[in-house]
């Protein structure tokens, strides 16, 4: 509905069964970004729109650079999907659909949904073009953004990740995830000057 009303949402879909990267797919949109912020929102993540609006206000009022519109994530069975289709969540109804305990994302990754200042997103060259498949790209970009002094905020709220069948690309995922985890760990453990040089970016936009 938001896409139809505001014409601000672009959908990127992978088409290769063997050679693709989630982060690189998002980067496809970079040449067309004209808005002040970019929201990277996974299709299998449900977040109440009021939390997205709160994140926008946080960016505007507090001059943050990166905002996560929630700090708790729940895994939900696919059978619960119908409970979200009206755009509202009845917590009493979904209580027995949770498949794992909640976990706090603060200090961990920019997963499921993150809103970033477009200028800063472009400055760090978006997501890594080295990582393959999906997984760890939302951790690696956090280390990119923090290396240039990005100010982050995690808002109180919940995100619901809907379990779903995986595409054929997932047959390579265990190997991709291992490689991605190793590469992300390398970036994380670098001192800031070394990390910036490795990523090919400067400390401050415009330097």
List keywords for this structure.
alpha/beta; single chain; 8 helices; 207 residues
SSE blueprint:
Layout: H1 2-6, H2 22-27, E1 37-41, E2 45-46, H3 49-62, E3 66-68, E4 72-76, H4 91-94, E5 103-104, E6 113-117, H5 118-123, H6 137-147, E7 152-154, E8 158-162, H7 173-189, H8 192-199
Parallel strand pairs: 3-7, 4-8
Antiparallel strand pairs: 1-6, 2-8, 3-6, 4-5
Helix pairs in contact: 6-7
Rg, Cα atoms, Å: 17 Å
Distance between the termini: 40 Å
* Largest sheet strand order: 1-6-3-7
Helix content: 25-40%
- Beta-strand content: 5-15%
The major sheet is characterized as: 4 strands, mixed
Mean pLDDT: 78
Low-confidence stretches: none
Cα shape: globular
Distinct helical segment count:
8
Number of strands: 8
Order of helical and strand elements:
HHEEHEEHEEHHEEHH
Structural class: alpha/beta
Structure description:
- This protein has a four-stranded mixed β-sheet with strand order 1-6-3-7. It has a four-stranded mixed β-sheet with strand order 2-8-4-5, with no helix packed on it.
- It starts with a helix and ends in an 8-residue tail after the last helix.
- Helices cover about 35% and strands about 15% of the residues.
- The chain has helices at about 1-5, 20-25, 50-60, 90-95, 120-125, 135-145, 175-190, 190-200; strands spanning about 35-40, 45, 65-70, 70-75, 105, 115, 150-155, 160.
- The relative contact order is 0.20.
- With about 210 residues, it is α/β, with parallel strands linked by helices.
Summarize this structure briefly.
By secondary structure, the protein is α/β, with parallel strands linked by helices. It has helices spanning 2-6, 22-27, 49-62, 91-94, 118-123, 137-147, 173-189, 192-199, and strands spanning 37-41, 45-46, 66-68, 72-76, 103-104, 113-117, 152-154, 158-162.
